[in-house]
């Protein structure tokens, strides 16, 4: 009895979470003119191939979606890889070295935790433009690398490693870089992968920064471009193609999260806590 | 690279072998940022293609830089970073921003003069020329895609409501009566709709009634202009819109172009919009539509005069390091695209104004206006008379922000939160703050 | 601490650690410290869009913000918005986590079904719901209009606000679920089994044992939800309402974006950035206090 009530509630919740995606899928099967007139049908239509093809190869007032997906993938991978490299190096330096001024270095890195990019939109924009990085992949990625979460996570991970590891390495005569490369990195693999999943999703879903810094249609990310497709109402929205594009835009991070669920949950919880 | 090029052309001049040197030199690249999406972007790209094919010295490279606010922001950033594009395609709303900052744009009339290219600014229709000129009459930018506000109406709905589909109402009281009959006869879900509410329901409204939007000749005479749009005509109109909405006669479809879909979908039967929307209506509407002049209040003395324009233009952006050759390329390209047959071709296709008298004459000689008398409605409305101080246009810094302030306050009125008069009073107070801020930071 | 720490820092090189830190410090300096300092400095000036004139005005930008009733509205609205989103997302997310943990078979399946929206961008969530609820396009939107409900968030500010709250919360349920569920899983089974032996019902166990035990996680979630609602909601609002109608969905971040990037009023936008900075700093400190952790 209780169990069936729980089942029912969970089913309703799962359905409510899924419903808008199902309707988007439905929209992607129907002719845009019909949708725009407000007479969308409750049953799938026969326009899937056209809508999907139009979105992928033409876009809807944007670059073709294959291009947008590629941009998003490069950006998300760049952000994930960049953050991981920076965090690994700095965490290593902070945990395993006796350095003067380490406190200051850590405080500087930690400060970035306080400021999501949304807070410093306009000044960061100005700085990036002055560096000549507007409308470039570098301008898209680099400012988003300033973050402390990865460093904090890996620092904690390295602190929790047994100290015998490093003692053994030193007895073997290994220098710091050899220790980093041959011992620390292999041990960090899972943590790094978990962090990578979270950062990939974070990067893929960026909105405000790409919106500002990209003005060339070929460099748009898919998340921003799908909103642009709805546009300012200058022409009838190609709803069928837009919904096909929206589905394509949400699939990669969703697949990553579902396929690597355990890794992802672990990464998320250790990265944010 | 740049200096090599300059060196080469200097050398060429020195030894008087221009053809040889030119053949060897790379063409000078002229960057053009534009804000039109397909299919209208084809016009700009076609210009560049044709111009590049017509000569070898310059190469125009057009880049789509997002919608107007985005391309303007990008251009501003580029100016700050020291590498502005040669040509910027901008909306009318940015005119004061681009013309007030020293050294940002080179007025096209200066550009042509320096390049020694004959250019007749008086060829432009007065309402267009004046909107884009300095108070002294110097043309700042090349008008490109210039519509004016008009009325579109649904002839089928008119018929269903027992109205004469060939005699649309010309006054606001007539529009209201028609809307009442349309709604009563269920010929359409609602009567009236509008695109660009801040522009068409206030800027155009006041100009058409020969009433000021701001002091100092709507801002043309100086940066110390103050908004005065909260007059009885505008207040009554805003209140009417709210009352009509409550009575189901008017439907607010949002800002920018968003209101257009209310009409195109058949929901409303009388629509105030930019004349260029005709293109979209032809493509998407499944009813017969007509075009007519903007409505006016017939108890306002002297109304209507000519209507003002909106739309976009090409600016020649300046930079200290820019060479005379680069400016020459910009000038040649702008001259190329202002040839009458070219202007006529794209303006008639996209239902904007023909821009110049010569383009209009060219079209007339081709018989275009005999075949398409509807295209004359916007033209006649804009050329009805020599523009007055109120109907030449608006030149206010921060007009983007002022327009959205007006729209915010109009929306508050439509929500029933305040009267039309209160909306305009508040918009005036807020807008004047924008103007004072602009005045302090803009140097003459 | 210090003895242990010293033992943990076996490498004494002077240059290498700084080389290792250099990339991150460079990125932090260039894309964080410089812009932050720039914002602070700019907030005491006004300038034209092109930066050709720059006038020192002291605190004027801040005073104008404080005096602007619309900015004060945006402050209140942002906090109301954030509280509603946080409360709703947390309540539903934790409730679902309890249901899955206490009353469901096939926990992995449910976990997947309730986790995936985490991967959805707020802007995309906005597009999906817009397509469903648009008054003249959406399946449900058009039905609501036909039923004469007066459904039109393009002009009805209350509807627009609730719509944005609803979608923002909808998208954040998954996040709360993930953390609450993980926290519940980590609780020792023995505690709950002992309570069951005492005859306590599921609801009672949830209320008086499980929830108190995961309270630190809940507190952490409140802070994260507030940060999310404040900042990540930008994409959603930009996709859906653009702050309108009549400012009904204008949050502090949206306003800073419009003033800086659309209206080109750099001084005013910079002052807003500094205000936001204070808000985030406060939330972050709250979060660290909640986690009982010090940098």
TrEMBL record, chain A:
CDD domains: TM_PBP2
Keywords: Cell inner membrane, Cell membrane, Membrane, Transmembrane, Transmembrane helix, Transport
Membrane topology recorded in Swiss-Prot or TrEMBL: Multi-pass membrane protein
The keyword RNA-binding is assigned to this record: no
TM annotation in the entry: 73-97, 104-125, 137-158, 179-201, 239-260
Record-annotated ABC transmembrane type-1 domain positions: 69-260
Pfam short name (any one): BPD_transp_1
InterPro entries in the cross-refs: MetI-like, MetI-like_sf
Compartment(s) of residence: Cell inner membrane; Cell membrane
Domain of life: Bacteria
Function of the molecule: Part of the ABC transporter complex UgpBAEC involved in sn-glycerol-3-phosphate (G3P) import. Probably responsible for the translocation of the substrate across the membrane.
Subunit structure: The complex is composed of two ATP-binding proteins (UgpC), two transmembrane proteins (UgpA and UgpE) and a solute-binding protein (UgpB).
Family as reported in the entry's similarity comment: Belongs to the binding-protein-dependent transport system permease family.
Name of the protein this chain belongs to: sn-glycerol-3-phosphate transport system permease protein UgpE
Species name: Roseococcus pinisoli
UniProtKB/TrEMBL annotation, chain B:
UniProt entry keywords in alphabetical sequence: Signal, Transport
Short name of one Pfam family: SBP_bac_1
SUPFAM superfamilies listed in its UniProt record: Periplasmic binding protein-like II
UniProt KW NADP keyword: no
Subcellular localization: Periplasm
InterPro entries according to UniProt: Bact_solute-bd_prot1 (IPR050490), SBP (IPR006059)
Entry keyword Transport: yes
Assembly and oligomerization: The complex is composed of two ATP-binding proteins (UgpC), two transmembrane proteins (UgpA and UgpE) and a solute-binding protein (UgpB).
Family recorded in the similarity comment: Belongs to the bacterial solute-binding protein 1 family.
PANTHER family for the chain: ARABINOSE-BINDING PROTEIN-RELATED (PTHR43649), SN-GLYCEROL-3-PHOSPHATE-BINDING PERIPLASMIC PROTEIN UGPB (PTHR43649:SF31)
Protein function: Part of the ABC transporter complex UgpBAEC involved in sn-glycerol-3-phosphate (G3P) import. Binds G3P.
Record-given protein name: sn-glycerol-3-phosphate-binding periplasmic protein UgpB
Automatic annotation (TrEMBL), chain C:
Annotated TM spans: 20-41, 78-100, 112-132, 160-187, 207-231, 270-288
Highest taxon listed in the record's lineage: Bacteria
InterPro entries (alphabetical): MetI-like, MetI-like_sf, UgpAE/MalFG_permease
Location in or out of the cell: Cell inner membrane; Cell membrane
Lipid bilayer topology: Multi-pass membrane protein
Every ABC transmembrane type-1 domain range: 75-287
Entry keyword set: Cell inner membrane, Cell membrane, Membrane, Transmembrane, Transmembrane helix, Transport
Stored SUPFAM superfamilies: MetI-like (SSF161098)
Record family assignment: Belongs to the binding-protein-dependent transport system permease family.
PANTHER family per the UniProt record, alphabetical: BLL4140 PROTEIN, SN-GLYCEROL-3-PHOSPHATE TRANSPORT SYSTEM PERMEASE PROTEIN UGPA
Reported function: Part of the ABC transporter complex UgpBAEC involved in sn-glycerol-3-phosphate (G3P) import. Probably responsible for the translocation of the substrate across the membrane.
Assembly notes: The complex is composed of two ATP-binding proteins (UgpC), two transmembrane proteins (UgpA and UgpE) and a solute-binding protein (UgpB).
Protein name according to UniProt: sn-glycerol-3-phosphate transport system permease protein UgpA
Protein's organism: Roseococcus pinisoli
């Amino acid at each position: 009895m209780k169990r069936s009530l729980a089942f029912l509630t969970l089913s309703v919740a799962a359905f409510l979470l899924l419903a808008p995606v199902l309707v988007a899928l439905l929209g992607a099967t129907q002719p845009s003119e019909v949708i725009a007139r407000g007479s969308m049908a409750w049953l799938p239509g026969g326009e899937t191939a056209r809508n999907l093809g139009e979105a992928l190869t033409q876009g809807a007032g944007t670059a073709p979606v294959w291009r947008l997906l590629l941009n998003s993938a490069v950006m998300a991978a760049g952000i994930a890889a960049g953050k991981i490299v920076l965090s690994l190096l700095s965490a290593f330096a902070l945990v395993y070295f006796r350095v003067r001024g380490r406190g200051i270095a850590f405080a500087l890195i930690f400060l970035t935790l306080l400021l999501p990019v949304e807070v410093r939109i306009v000044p960061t924009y100005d700085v990036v433009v002055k560096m000549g990085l507007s409308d470039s992949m570098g301008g898209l990625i680099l400012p988003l690398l300033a973050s402390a979460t990865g460093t904090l996570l890996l620092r904690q991970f390295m602190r929790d490693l047994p100290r015998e590891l490093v003692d053994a390495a030193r007895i073997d005569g290994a220098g710091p870089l050899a220790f980093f490369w041959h011992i620390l990195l292999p041990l960090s693999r899972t943590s790094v992968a978990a962090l990578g999943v979270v950062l990939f999703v974070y990067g893929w879903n960026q909105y405000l920064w790409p919106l500002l810094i990209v003005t060339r249609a070929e460099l748009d990310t898919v998340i921003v471009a799908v909103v642009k497709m709805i546009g300012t109402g200058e022409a009838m929205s190609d709803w069928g193609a837009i919904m096909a594009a929206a589905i394509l835009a949400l699939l990669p991070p969703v697949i990553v999260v579902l396929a690597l669920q355990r890794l992802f949950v672990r990464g998320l919880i250790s990265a944010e806590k | 690279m740049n200096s090599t090029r300059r060196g080469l052309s200097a050398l060429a001049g020195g030894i008087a072998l221009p053809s040889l040197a030119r053949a060897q030199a790379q063409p000078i690249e002229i960057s053009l940022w534009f804000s039109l999406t397909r299919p209208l972007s084809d016009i700009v790209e076609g210009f560049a293609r044709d111009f590049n094919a017509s000569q070898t010295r310059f190469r125009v490279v057009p880049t789509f830089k997002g919608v107007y606010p985005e391309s303007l922001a990008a251009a501003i950033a580029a100016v700050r970073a020291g590498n502005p594009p040669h040509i910027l395609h901008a909306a009318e709303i940015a005119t004061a921003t681009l013309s007030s900052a020293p050294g940002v744009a080179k007025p096209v009339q200066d550009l042509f003069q320096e390049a020694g290219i004959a250019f007749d600014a008086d060829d432009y229709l007065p309402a267009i020329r004046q909107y884009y000129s300095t108070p002294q009459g110097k043309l700042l930018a090349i008008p490109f895609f210039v519509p004016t506000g008009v009325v579109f109406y649904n002839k089928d709905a008119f018929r269903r409501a027992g109205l004469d589909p060939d005699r649309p109402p010309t006054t606001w009281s007539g529009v209201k009566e028609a809307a009442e009959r349309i709604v009563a006869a269920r010929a359409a879900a609602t009567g009236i709709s509008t695109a660009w509410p801040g522009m068409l329901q206030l800027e155009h409204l006041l100009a058409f009634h020969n009433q000021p939007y701001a002091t100092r000749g709507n801002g043309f005479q100086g940066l110390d202009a103050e908004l005065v749009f909260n007059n009885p005509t505008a207040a009554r109109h805003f209140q009417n819109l709210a009352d009509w909405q409550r009575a189901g006669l008017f439907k607010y479809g949002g800002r920018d172009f968003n209101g257009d879909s209310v009409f195109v979908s058949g929901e409303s039967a009388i629509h105030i919009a930019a004349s260029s929307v005709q293109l979209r209506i032809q493509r998407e509407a499944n009813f017969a539509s007509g075009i007519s002049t903007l409505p006016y209040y017939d108890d306002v003395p002297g109304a209507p005069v000519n209507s003002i324009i909106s739309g976009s233009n090409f600016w020649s952006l300046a930079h200290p390091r820019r060479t005379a050759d680069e400016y020459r390329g910009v000038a040649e390209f702008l001259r190329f695209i202002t040839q009458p047959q070219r202007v006529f071709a794209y303006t008639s296709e996209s239902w904007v104004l023909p821009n110049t008298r010569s383009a209009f004459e060219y079209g007339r000689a081709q018989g275009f206006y005999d075949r398409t008398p509807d295209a004359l409605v916007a033209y006649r409305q804009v050329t009805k008379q020599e523009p007055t101080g109120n109907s030449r246009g608006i030149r206010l810094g921060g007009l983007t922000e002022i327009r959205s302030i007006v729209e915010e306050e109009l929306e508050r009125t439509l929500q029933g939160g305040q009267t039309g008069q209160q909306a305009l009073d508040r918009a005036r107070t807020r807008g004047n703050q924008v103007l004072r801020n602009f005045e302090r930071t803009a140097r003459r | 601490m210090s003895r242990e720490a010293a033992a943990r820092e076996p490498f004494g090189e002077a240059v290498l650690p700084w080389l290792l830190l250099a990339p991150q410090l460079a990125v932090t300096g260039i894309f964080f410290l410089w812009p932050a300092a720039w914002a602070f400095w700019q907030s005491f000036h006004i300038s034209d869009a092109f930066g050709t004139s720059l006038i020192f005005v002291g605190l004027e930008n801040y005073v104008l913000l404080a005096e602007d009733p619309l900015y004060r509205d945006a402050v209140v609205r942002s906090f109301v918005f954030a509280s509603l989103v946080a409360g709703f997302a947390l309540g539903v997310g934790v409730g679902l986590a309890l249901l899955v943990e206490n009353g469901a078979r096939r926990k992995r399946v449910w976990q997947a079904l309730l986790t995936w929206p985490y991967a959805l961008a707020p802007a995309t969530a906005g597009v999906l719901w817009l397509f469903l609820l648009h008054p003249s396009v959406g399946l449900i939107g058009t039905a609501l209009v036909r039923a004469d409900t007066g459904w039109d968030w393009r002009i009805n500010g209350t509807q627009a606000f609730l719509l944005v709250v609803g979608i923002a919360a909808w998208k954040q349920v998954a996040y709360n679920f993930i953390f609450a569920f993980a926290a519940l899983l980590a609780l020792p089974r023995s505690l709950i089994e002992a309570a069951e032996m005492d005859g306590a019902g599921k609801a009672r166990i949830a209320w008086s044992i499980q929830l108190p035990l995961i309270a630190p996680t809940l507190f952490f979630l409140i802070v994260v939800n507030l940060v999310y609602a404040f900042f990540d909601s930008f994409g959603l609002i930009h996709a859906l309402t653009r702050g309108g109608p009549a400012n009904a969905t204008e949050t502090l971040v949206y306003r800073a974006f419009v003033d800086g990037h659309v209206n080109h009023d750099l001084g005013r936008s910079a002052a807003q950035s500094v205000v936001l900075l204070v808000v985030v700093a406060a939330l972050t400190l709250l979060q660290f206090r909640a986690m009982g952790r010090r940098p």
